[in-house]
User: What shape does this take?
Amino acid sequence: MHTKDPFDKAYTRVKYTRYADDFVVMIIGSKNLAENIREKIRDFLGEELQLELNMDKTVITNLSDRRVRFLGYEISKTREDAQLTKNTLGIKKRAANETIQLLVPSDVITEKLKPFMVRGKATHHNARINQPLLDTLQQYNSEIRGLYQYYCLATDVSKKIGRFRHYHYDSLLKTVARKEKSSLPKVIEKYGVEVKLKQQAGTRRIFGVTYQTKEGMKTMTYFNDSIKKKDKPLTGATANGALFNGVPNRHQIIERINAKKCELCEQELPNRDSYEVHHIRKLKDIKQEYARRGDSLPTWKLTMCSMNRKTLVVCIACHDAIHAGRNVQSIKKAVKAKTIELGMAGEPDTQKCVRPVRRGVQ
Assistant: This one.
């Protein structure tokens, strides 16, 4: 028996969540309410933003019957009367009934495992056989760490990512075994590292690589963190494992525009028409271009590289100088070096770095 009336018509709740052009509206209420909200969203997008809402993709779903896919997660509502728990007073209650859960889609794990499995068994990765062992291990670690960090909010993350880790780790061992023309037991005997168990006493052997650094010898092992659900998301987590830790004195684009100051010459700008935003597509294209030629970077490129951004808020004079190829003298204290260390390889596409200035184009 429910502790609250699930048919209380007076109880209504609407919650809206958006990321880029994807959004979901969670509604506790009638189907008519959901249809009315969808119509209002369509009218608003059409009248205010001149955008068309795809009614075929914007569906109304009852979570009691089906799951909803949003940003790679599956959203579901549990119905389980048998699962009980006790509160601090020792009173039993249903733990999972009518609660909203985030789940890892099974097809995502299946798709991620395709490069590492053949006919239901783990296999070696041909493209990584000729890599150095440390590079291979780092690549495997980044894959599972990124997958876990993205799906760590899911209720079934332990089960789904645990399955991925099982085949993923075996694929790593088989890749190393194929590289050294050896067997799995010999690989573990040669590269096995004793690590402490997370949940209980004792140790286990796991694949690891020892390498030399300035501080001395260090050892990197295969991903050995506990795979369990987290209540709060990691700031900046992405599916490939990259994390942005935040750097002081680096502002968001809106704050930088509102500052009304050229980021090259630091001239105060009176109004919106006095400055423009310079864009590039890839910072690495800039670095590769000048690394290949052996030249030092111009001031504006040094500034963008030091800020690690693909946009630069500049006055019109500096923007014209950038596209004319003239060097701009910056008085920013953050840019003192005349050159920066460049180490990326590959042929750049110089057309990606700088594009013509188009003014008056909406």
